[in-house]
Design brief:
7-stranded mixed beta sheet; globular; about 150 residues; alpha/beta; 3 helices
Length: about 150
């Protein structure tokens, strides 16, 4: 799949997020589902990921395809902005066959031999039907982040 800002349709039960950067257990579980699904779709050829163990505040670069739908996504935008005020610690809860959690400094020293993933926190809407996440993913440190919708 080409690397570009794109709308990804993911099937996942999504949960509501606290506005203080703390994730409720059911929300945390669903965030890991979104992370793993995005990686499988974005870079299906990668067998082993080095995932930076702390989220980054990556500016959400998505807009609804139709400007009339902005109110539909307002909760996602607001929740994304609120959750990404603080960095969240990621844990070994990804549904991926092989990965390692690495310190942020490892990504700065990245090489062609490792495929890194760096995530923002996942923003959700109140009705648990839409989510957005931004990420850097791949073997080299890209100049731009990619963002994905989950519905």
């Amino acid at each position: 799949m080409p690397r570009r800002r794109t709308l990804l349709r993911l099937t996942a039960l999504l949960a509501i997020v606290s506005s203080y950067g703390y994730q409720q257990p059911e929300d945390e579980k669903e965030s890991y589902i979104v992370y793993a699904t995005v990686l499988r779709i974005w870079e299906p050829q990668v067998a082993t990921w080095a995932i930076v163990r702390q989220t980054r505040n990556i500016k959400l670069c998505l807009l609804p395809a139709n400007p009339n739908q902005e109110s539909l996504y307002r909760d996602v935008f607001d929740n994304d902005r609120e959750k990404n005020r603080a960095k969240l610690a990621l844990e070994r809860k990804f549904d991926l066959p092989d990965y390692a959690l690495v310190e942020p400094e490892a990504w700065g020293r990245s090489s062609q031999s490792r495929s890194f993933a760096v995530f923002s926190a996942v923003g959700f809407n109140a009705s648990r039907t839409y989510a957005a996440v931004c990420l850097w993913a791949g073997a080299t440190r890209p100049r731009l982040a990619h963002c994905a919708w989950a519905a």
